[in-house]
Amino acid sequence: MLFRLTICTIFLAVLALPTIINADDIVPLSYPPKVAYMLLANELGVQYGIPSSEIKNVLKAESGYSQEAVGDHGKALSCAQFHKDTFDGYAAQYGQPLNYPSCIDQEKLMAWMWASNPQTTQLWTTYRRSYGVKYRHEKV
Prior knowledge:
Layout: H1 2-16, H2 23-26, H3 33-48, H4 52-63, E1 70-71, E2 76-77, E3 82-83, H5 84-94, H6 103-116, H7 125-131
Antiparallel strand pairs: 1-2, 2-3
Helix pairs in contact: 3-4, 3-6, 5-6
């Protein structure tokens, strides 16, 4: 009986999930930033159908999940190490307001870019070094 009740509870919980995941709802402020960014990667992976491990690996290699990270001689900032012009260009296509230095917004934009056009993974040197030029999450 307990097993059936648990399965029913899980089934009902799944039905109650929103079809579009709002990142602000799934990143509790009580988590340390690194954990919050890893949880967000999991949710974005589900939302966009891309491997969350690839998101996490790039964020770890680029910045160690640090919003204060600066790279490329001051041209790249925050977790995903976007250059400002690249971020602004893709953010305009994304269709929602995004904040350039925000790790959450950089992570959301990166996942959306990869899902929309798998070739954009090649904008990250760490992606190319880790996975080569093969677009691993490209749907066949």
